[in-house]
Amino acid sequence: MRAMRWWDIPAVMSIEDELFGDEAWSEGMFWSELAERDTRRYLVEEEPVGRLCAYAGLCAYAPHEAYIQTIAVAPRVQRRGIGEALLVELLGEAKRRGCDHVDLEVRADNDPAMRLYERHGFAQIAVRRGYYQPSGTDAVVMRRVK
Ligand SMILES: CC(C)(COP(=O)(O)OP(=O)(O)OC[C@H]1O[C@@H](n2cnc3c(N)ncnc32)[C@H](O)[C@@H]1OP(=O)(O)O)[C@@H](O)C(=O)NCCC(=O)NCCS
Questions:
Q1: Which tens digits make up the pLDDT trace of 13-49?
Q2: How crowded is the C-beta side of 109, counted as CA atoms within 13 Å?
Q3: Are strands 137-145 and 2-3 parallel, antiparallel or unpaired?
Q4: What is the DSSP letter of 33?
Q5: Where are the beta strands (DSSP E) in 17-120?
Q6: Domain boundaries in the chain?
Q7: CA distances (Å), 113 to each of 47, 67, 71, 89, 104, in order?
Q8: Centroid of ligand 1 to alpha carbon of 98 (angstroms)
Q9: Whose CA is nearest to atom 33 of ligand 1?
């Protein structure tokens, strides 16, 4: 696991497009996130051959809120503990920065992700109707209090 750098963005985008299709972040969104050096922590995971296979990002405004901005694991390496390891690292980062809670949004139909978050102490606090576009899928807002 290491910090995401700007030159990772093409490899990140290929996983992003594969996983999220029409609702994928743009390359520009990753550039802006990486530019916000003080409040962001973005990580990537590589396979032994050096091929990028997962990434995740945190936005933290100490001493209060932090947000898990994204977590994505390439389908070929899912269910091997990589998503969980990235989440644990970002939760540790939020704690180190003194944030008293961590929020995230997840598609209401994304059971695997919700299960992962619940395992780490997140609970549903709100629903944003039609949040994900263009599909109109609801977002579940989840929070973990330290
Ligand atoms: C959700 C995601 C990040 C999980 O990462 P992962 O590396 O595949 O998951 P892990 O191996 O770390 O799994 C940890 C736990 O999460 C839950 N989980 C993960 N994938 C699951 C699945 N397909 N079905 C049910 N539970 C699942 C389980 O509780 C699992 O623990 P277990 O394997 O001991 O049962 C990954 O599947 C992914 O990138 N999905 C597509 C993108 C996405 O939905 N991102 C989240 C947006 S909010």
A1: 999 999 999 899 999 999 999 999 999 999 999 999 9
A2: 8
A3: unpaired
A4: H
A5: 40-46, 52-60, 65-73, 101-107
A6: 2-145
A7: 21, 15, 9, 16, 11
A8: 27
A9: 79
Cα(115) to centroid of ligand 1, in Å? Answer: 7
**Residues at CB less than 6 angstroms from ligand 1:** 19, 71-73, 78-84, 106, 110, 112-113, 115-116, 119
For residue 106, report the distance from its CA to the centre of ligand 1, in Å: 12
Distance 113 CA to ligand 1 centre (A): 5
DSSP code for 61: -
Give, in words, the CATH class of 2-145: alpha beta
pTM above 0.90, yes or no: yes
The residue to which tokens 């990772």 are assigned: 8
- Tallying the residues shown for the chain, one arrives at 146
Q: For 40-86, how does the pLDDT look when each residue is reduced to its tens digit (9 = 90+)?
A: 999 999 999 989 999 999 999 978 899 999 999 999 999 999 999 99
CA distance 24 to 89: 23
Pairing of β 65-73 and β 101-107: parallel
Ligand 1 atom with the smallest distance to the CA of 117 is: 16
